[in-house]
Write a structure and sequence with these properties.
alpha+beta; 5-stranded mixed β-sheet; rod-shaped; 2 domains; 5 strands
Length: about 180
C-alpha cells in the first residue's frame, strides 16, 4: 500500500484525483505538468471520539502550501475534524429512543402477554376474587416493572431539562433495565 495523496490543478484548485503517491520513494514526479501538483494527505490529529446522537462530525479537507512533516519537499492535503452540535430536537429524540430501549428491556418481548395476565389478575382482584399464587406473582412483577418505568420517565424528564438548560445529557446513563 502506498502513501495516500491528492493530485490537484494549481491554477484552479481543482482536485483531479485521490490516489496513492505515484512514487514509492516519495521523490518528486519527473515530467509532471507544472500546473499539476501531488499533495500528500496529512491528518494532524486523530479522529475525535464523540457521541453521534449529540454531534455531527465534519471532516475538513483543504489544499495547502504547508510542507508535509514527513516529506517536507511535498505539500500537504490537510484533513482535520470538527464537531457540530445537533439540533435540540434531534438530541431529544435520541433521549426518547434510549428510554424506549430501556423500557423494552424491562417488559421484554412478551409484553402483551404480561399486560393481559396483569389486567386479568387485577380485574379478578377488583371483583373480590382472591388472587391465585401465580396471579400474585404477576401483580408483584407488574408493580416492580411499573416502578422502573416510572423511574425511566423521571430520567427522561431530567435529561430533557438538562438539554433545555444547554447541558449535554449522558444519554445512556441512569436508565432502569430488567436485571
Amino acid at each position: 500500500m502506498g502513501t495516500p495523496a491528492v493530485l490537484i490543478r494549481k491554477s484552479t484548485g481543482e482536485i483531479i484525483k485521490h490516489a496513492d503517491y505515484p512514487r514509492e520513494d516519495m521523490q518528486l514526479v519527473v515530467g509532471l505538468d507544472p500546473d499539476l501538483e501531488w499533495l500528500v494527505k496529512y491528518t494532524p490529529f486523530v479522529r475525535p471520539d464523540y457521541d453521534s446522537r449529540i454531534y455531527i462530525l465534519n471532516q475538513i479537507e483543504e489544499v495547502t502550501t504547508d510542507p508535509h512533516p514527513d516529506y517536507n519537499h511535498l505539500n500537504q492535503y490537510k484533513i482535520t475534524f470538527e464537531t457540530e452540535k445537533r439540533p435540540s430536537e434531534d438530541i431529544q429524540l435520541s433521549i426518547e429512543n434510549a428510554e424506549n430501549e430501556a423500557n423494552e428491556r424491562i417488559c421484554g418481548d412478551k409484553f402483551k402477554k404480561w399486560v393481559t395476565l396483569s389486567l386479568t389478575a387485577i380485574i379478578n382482584n377488583l371483583d373480590g376474587i382472591t388472587p391465585k399464587p401465580i396471579e400474585k406473582v404477576v401483580m408483584d412483577g407488574t408493580r416492580a416493572k411499573g416502578v422502573k418505568i416510572w423511574k425511566n420517565d423521571e430520567t427522561l424528564r431530567n435529561k430533557i431539562q438538562q438539554l433545555a438548560a444547554g447541558e449535554e445529557p449522558e444519554i445512556d446513563s441512569g436508565w432502569q433495565r430488567e436485571e
